[in-house]
Request: fold
Amino acid sequence: MSNHETPMIRPKRKKVWVDYLIQFRWVGVIFLLLPMSLMLDMFIYLDQVISQRKSYKHRQKEHNKNVIKVIKRLKERNPSKDGLVCTARKPWVTVGMRNVDYKRAMRFEVDLSDFRNILAIDHDRMIATCEPLVKMGQITRATVPMNLALAVVPELEDLTVGGLINGSGLEGSSHLYGLFSDIVVAYEIILADGRAVRATKDNEYSDLFYAIPWSQGTLGLLTCAEIKLIPIKEYMKVTYKPVRGNISDLAKGYIDSFAPEFGDTDSEKVPDFVETLIYNPHEAVCMTGKYASKEEAKMNWTKINYIGLWFKPWFYQHAQTALKKGEFVDYIPTREYYHRHTRSYFWESKLILPFADQWWFRILLGWTMPPKIPLLKVAQTEAMHNYYHDMHVLQDLLVPLYKVSDALEWAHREMEVYPIWVCPHKLYKHPYKTMVYPEPGYEQHRRKGDTTDAQMYTDIGLYYAPGSVLRGEVFDGSDAVRRMETWLIENHGYETQYAVSELSEKEFWRMFDGALYEKCRRKYGAVGNFMSVYYKSKKGRKTEKEVQEALEIPYVDGTD
Reply:
């Protein structure tokens, strides 16, 4: 291991009372949160069944009525008295750890809770029309039996269409289709003045179309999205290939598992799904998936793996067996594969319930997993919330593919979080320069994975307690995040906005490009009506005074 890869040595940390609260959190989870989660799941499922039984025409009629209600609500607002517009969604409902204290300032709430239906599945146009609160599990339940799916299906079932658009989202197919927002063909959005407009890449609202992704709902209220569908098959044929060596070797094995030479668009050479799990600095498993028919799977019936069954090992542990038995193949039902990380929240569930991955727990109570993230959040005390900010890492680093090795070495030295989820995605060049964009002139280098219209990036997912925390050492989470953000800015990387951020406003606009976003805020009346994306995502409590002052601050060009 090179010196660059050596983790930082930190002094021991004295335990405080909140450490024991975290350590024995599982008691409340088992006896309270798991039963409540099960009941909530049943309620959500019944609501979705009722929605599915309605005709698309009836759902569209309800949608139109709800849009009129929102418009009427916006027109009731007095800008000088009522505060900034935001949704009435409770802060603890969100999936991520990002601070949402902006809702504690004076605000004008608009209820969007009725926007949770799939409005249409158009087989001819290959488009699914969804309201913003439609969840990934809901849409796969509707489309997979038709042998259809969204081109990008993020793994966790409770992620919503609106969150994946206004924030960010990707999956194992993003090396083919890009980020979740890249598969959207049209948005319906209600502007601050109450106008409902349809934005596409080639109509009069094309600038708004490209500005909406990553905007955190600060340009208007998203009420509908038309999303690209693709044909699929019943099973995913997954190949698990172990890789050993140093961090550079693991990065090379990951890149070689899927990345074609520059400009090579032969789809037969590229797998349908790609992900790599890095278990420690010396071992990883590279996984590639290809859609397979039920006939092919039945011919290999001994390799069929119903990974979604409650008693099955968690997916990341199943994949880890390749390190012992070598390369192998199995066939997983497609919908179960899409949501393979839901039961264990990748591997975060092991921190919540340390024994939940054991065979006896999976058999007895595995069917109750996982506890709902909103319930976990609402059950947190302020001390627990601060503990997770300081002693836990939940970050996605989006970096150019050729810098994966450098990013992994940095993450090992500074954070030492394992396992690591590694997943490639295209970052497209668009007619407008969007908040996230490829490196200028990347195509001149003709690197593996890149094409003339997109640079290949990689999501490095860090989700767990750092090694220093597990060893009882001092760890400064805020300082680690600041150093991570500095590294990303210097290497043309991006931090996803669901996570905790320490960026100043100038640093934020060095990482993201705000020119188009700011232009659209002024053009479409968001200034003075919606909070800016920086002040919505920045860490710390937002007072009304700070919010109002922020409205008067012009866009800060981070390149100055």
Observations:
- The first strand starts at residue 84 and ends at 87.
- Residues 402 and 447 are 8 Å apart (CA to CA).
